[in-house]
Design brief:
- This protein has 164 residues and is of the alpha+beta class.
- It has one domain: Nuclear Transport Factor 2, Chain: A (Roll).
- Strand 1 and strand 2 form a beta hairpin.
- The radius of gyration is 22 Å and the shape is globular.
Length: 164
């Protein structure tokens, strides 16, 4: 009799616990998706405010940045230095918008994130205003000490509007 009661209790426990485990994992992923979206929104706001320090803070200390022409910078410090110059020059009046495309969790602490972007108000080397530019951000983000940061940042520019 005791063995039957123990088995029944175990079955009820497993049936009740299993869905909560799944729900808890999904809620955590949902919370992390919201946090990643917030990091991206703050990152774009920093760009639009031409704040190189705030912009670079979204990067991991050892994060890598690659722009549309293949220029790379390693580490938050190099990224900040690069954008301090750009925000004082060709990006002084630039404005960027974005549209989140996807967030895919590779592990609970690593996410692959894509967003379309559009840039207006940037200047060419000769000082003339560039036409509207469009492209794709692809980021590998890692959760470090509870914060989502760009670990690998790649920026692609569309030469023409991509087919949908």
């Amino acid at each position: 009799m005791t063995w039957t009661r123990l088995r029944a209790t175990l079955v009820v426990f497993l049936l009740v616990s299993f869905p909560f485990g799944i729900s808890s994992a999904k809620n955590s992923e949902g919370d992390d998706s919201s946090t990643i979206k917030q990091v991206v929104a703050e990152f774009v706001d920093a760009f639009n405010n031409h704040d190189a320090h705030a912009w670079a803070m979204a990067f991991a200390a050892d994060g890598d940045f690659t722009n549309v022409s293949g220029l790379t910078r390693h580490g938050r410090k190099e990224v900040e230095e690069r954008f301090a110059g750009l925000f004082a020059g060709p990006l002084k009046n630039a404005h960027r918008t974005y549209s989140m495309k996807s967030i895919q969790f590779l592990t609970p602490e690593i996410a692959s994130v894509d967003a379309d972007w559009e840039l207006t108000g940037s200047r060419a080397a000769d000082g003339s205003e560039n036409p509207v530019r469009k492209g794709l951000f692809h980021w590998v983000m890692t959760k470090q000490n509870g914060h989502w940061l760009f670990t690998a940042f790649h920026e692609f520019e569309f030469l023409s509007t991509p087919a949908k």
